[in-house]
Specification:
Layout: H1 2-19, E1 25-32, E2 35-41, E3 53-58, E4 65-67, E5 79-87, H2 99-107, E6 111-115, E7 121-122, E8 125-127
């Protein structure tokens, strides 16, 4: 039950990007390729299941999302395909900043990963600074 509540809270937080006013507003940090990026919300609509760039939110560890692509080649402008990661043993949880590192932990069974197509959203990211 706790896991479900955390997952719902994570999806709700990600969905705030769609509920904001037309003017952009910052709402957190996303990590990609080992770097921290700032995010901002806009009102662009994304149909469920149509995200193109994988992003991982965490259900039982407080950290920003981890995206597969940083801005630049390969990126689709922040049209996010949402996955929710859960640490199997929350005592093992630590900051992750690279998509491939998360996937390696999924491969070893330390993290479970679930696709959440109804949480797909659009939110561009910018370098910090």
């Amino acid at each position: 039950m706790r896991r479900l509540l955390l997952t719902v809270a994570t999806i709700a937080a990600l969905s705030l990007a769609l509920a904001g006013p037309a003017a952009a507003r910052e709402f957190g940090t996303i990590y990609a390729e080992g770097q921290a990026y700032r995010t901002f919300a806009n009102s662009a609509r994304v149909d469920p299941g149509t995200g193109t760039d994988p992003i991982i939110a965490f259900s039982n560890f407080a950290q920003g999302g981890v995206a597969k692509y940083a801005p630049g080649p390969g990126s689709h402008g922040g049209r996010w395909m949402v996955y929710v990661a859960t640490w199997v043993d929350p005592g093992d949880a630590h900051l992750l900043t690279d998509f491939d590192d998360v996937m390696a932990l999924v491969g070893t069974g330390e993290i479970t990963l679930q696709r959440m197509p109804n949480a797909d959203f659009r939110c561009p990211i910018l370098p910090n600074g």
